Write the structure tokens for this entry.
Amino acid sequence: MEEEKAKENIEIEDKELKKIEHRRKGIDFSKIVPILKNNPKLWIIIITIILLVAIIGFSSWARTQNIPYLRDVTTGQYTLGPDLDPFLFLRYAQTIEKTGTLPKMDIMRYTPLGGVPTQSLAFIPYTIFYLYKFLSIFSSDMTIEYAAIIYPVICFAIGLLFFFLFVQKLSSYLFKDSEKKLIYSVSIALIATLLLAVFPSYLHRTMAGIPEKEAPGMFFFWLAFYCFLSAWQSKGNKSLVMALIAGTSTGLMSWVWGGVRFIFMTFSLFAFLTFLLDKMDKRQKFVYSVWLIVTMLLVFLVSGLNGTRNFFSGVDTLFAFGVFSFIVGDYLIYNTKLKESLSIEKIKLPHSVVSVLIVLVLGLILVTIFFGFSFIVDKAKFIKEGLLYPFGRGRVGLTVAENRQPYFVDWFNEFTPFFFWVFFIGMIFLFYEATKNFNKKRKGWINFFFVLFLTTFIFSRYSDNKPFLGMFLLNGENPLSQVLYFGGLFVFLFAVLFIYLKAYIKKDDETLESYKNIHFAYLFVLAFVFWMILASRGAIRLFFIAGPGFILVASLLPLKLFTYHDKKDYYPLVLGAILIVIASILITQYSPKLLMIALFVLLAALIAYMVIINQRWEKILVFCSVLSIIFLLLGTFLVYEQATVASARATVPGAYYQQWQKAMAWVRENTTEDALFIHWWDYGYWVQTIGKRATVTDGGHFTEYWDHLIGRYLLTAQNEKTALRLCKSYGADYLLIDSTDVGKYPAYSSIGSDETGHDRLSWINTFVLDEKQTQETKNETAYVYVGGSMVDQDIGWENYSFPRAQAIIGGFIMVTDKEKGTIKEIKAVIFYDGKQYRVPIRYAYINGEWKEFEKKEQELITGALYFIPRVTQQGIKSLGAALYLSEKALNAEWVKLYLFDESENFELVHKQDALFIEQLKQLNVSVGDFVYAGDFIGPIKIWKINYPEDIKTYKEYLEIPEGWNQNTGPWATLDHLGE
């Protein structure tokens, strides 16, 4: 006994000594353990923080895997990744490092006029510079280039944190009546954050080495969303502070990126809906007003009066002010003597609707007086055009690949079928949740019209060539597509408004209360996602900002559905069955093995659930639905994660960019510092930043008119003197043409065309030798080159006519004489109106020599095959591929220069071979300048421009015609110069 007591005393003493030691070190675990044990919420917070840090840490780490490879091969120094605009921001940051500020006029851009570094261009360089100064404290080896490289990853990490906070805040409102509100909200936020962290479209603009506008823009975006939502529900000073921060974030984002308009559209639509349903109290009206006014003040601070007027003249910002005017008008009408003088009480409509109608009528009258009725008509047309073509239909804008309007099939490719269907069903379910307080009949009709709207809105731009359900071609532009697009929306709005007004007139308090009881958080989600769907129809590049909206809905679905575990509502049961079927079909399509595993896990879980808990079939179906959604989201995450990691590692300067680095090294070392380069606009920032030389145009498009002029009077000029006149008017010293200009030919030939839009429009496509189709006779061999190219102008041949953009060249047949070893003829295989024609062409270009075919008894179309070697796994085929050059292409100045080296006054001073060709030449393999290796590969060529004495300058090339814009022109107005 004494020994046991002695042992106990020793243990007690040890514990006391440990406590003393912990206290000495500042840690008293004796107090911490009980706190953790008795506070499960604290455990949830701790676990959430750990998981959130892990998500942000992993995704940030993945985005930095390319840093060791971001090097300039000519200097060994850090450089940026494969992109265009970031090089402008880097050059400006370098300028700030050297001079302490940006110049008032940037003489390296838009020379000879110069460009003004606006605030939207200055914000990122300055923040890169200050980041560089901060990081220099910790490392003496820090460079401004490295700061620019790491800048987007830092912005991404902070932005992802605020995205989590926003989703968690929104989710907590949706689960406010649940005892498990905290765990539900943080779970949804973690799922959404995890998906966004690996969302492929979110990657490139948040990668190391790509300091684009979107990275800091999204930081301000999510900060504004989080603060606005917090302000909406907060009280007292907190509400004011959050509204001020939301306005400040929105204003700062306006300095950085045009995506700020999505903040205006979301907040304005949300505020309008809450106001219309009489759900907006005085404090919330104050929040909205503070947010808008602070934003406007910050825009004014940077842009001045004219800039602010231009910024707020957009339809989205006008809508924001429209909602503000409704709020002010409502106060004046119902809280002043106007209420009595206007006899408002006699109008049997909700006072919010009355206020909207009165303000609208008054506004229309004032606009008509000051601007004319045509202004209203034009704005209405502009809104319709904006809904159909959010990025417009201008020649310049739409030639940028990422501005292309996507189809629904592109959504599938971008989001994956797994994810899309979770989002689509999630939207239906969330709307059902929002209207759950309506009686069965009202709820049924409202949800029916919503599903109709959602379906027609999304699927009305299904594909340009695949019929929807195998029956209807919905390309977003034909009449049926537009009827579905606008019809579904208007029918839904009419139905909701009709039921609302009818209830008010008939004093149906139950229905009115149901409208009023729609939770504001659902309205916020619906307002946000509506614009995200519209954005997804607008341009490929907007998948970047639309993705988070889709992720939000998909993340909400499983836990929201799980709350039906203890409810008797058959709608989610049907939804659950649909989800299980979709999951099975999709998994079968993508992985039969995965399907077997999934079904086994699902069956095992179902049996365990039935045996252990012994629940009813409804609950079991809900459980299976939730499990299937989680499984789909998990599959989506795995697909996204693999794509993200692979893409992150590949975001480095590849062979093409190394070719440019070498070309620009030559420019730095062999041209004077005041040399001016002219080229297609794409390469402006590279020449300025890497080559250290001024350019005429760049990606800023100071005026798209100059793009038109270069496209028409230089690249597709019909004679050399026209090109020289344009170049001399700008004072250009060097002309640069890149191999990718072959693929961009349709873009600049379209921009360079006249009012018809196609007098210069052309393209150069590649046709590849198909050796399997080679046919031999006793004296001849026929080689078949396969490919595809539309006819770029009307062609008449014998008694046949092949119209532009309708007839298709599907291949070429080259017949050679075995004995002489010469080419006898080349025929184009033309498909038109369901028939095939074999039409001989006039020219071939082989090994630097022209071959002209002549046939007195037969007409030949003016076209040429430009033969180039093709690299295959079996070796190099000297005549393995050919470019088809139409008559238009043969007349274009850039083709004469780049492909044929034909010029009297453009002196070729440098040719930077593609890396692949450079390597072949090092192995003593001669292939010429061009090869085909899955794609066209060629050199960067630089010409020094030698101006003859008779070449004059024309100031018209520097001016912009009055009223010109990229949608309406006028076009080709300078054709007369030099005649």
Observations:
- The CA atoms of residues 701 and 707 lie 8 Å apart.
- The radius of gyration is 33 Å.
- The first strand starts at residue 676 and ends at 678.
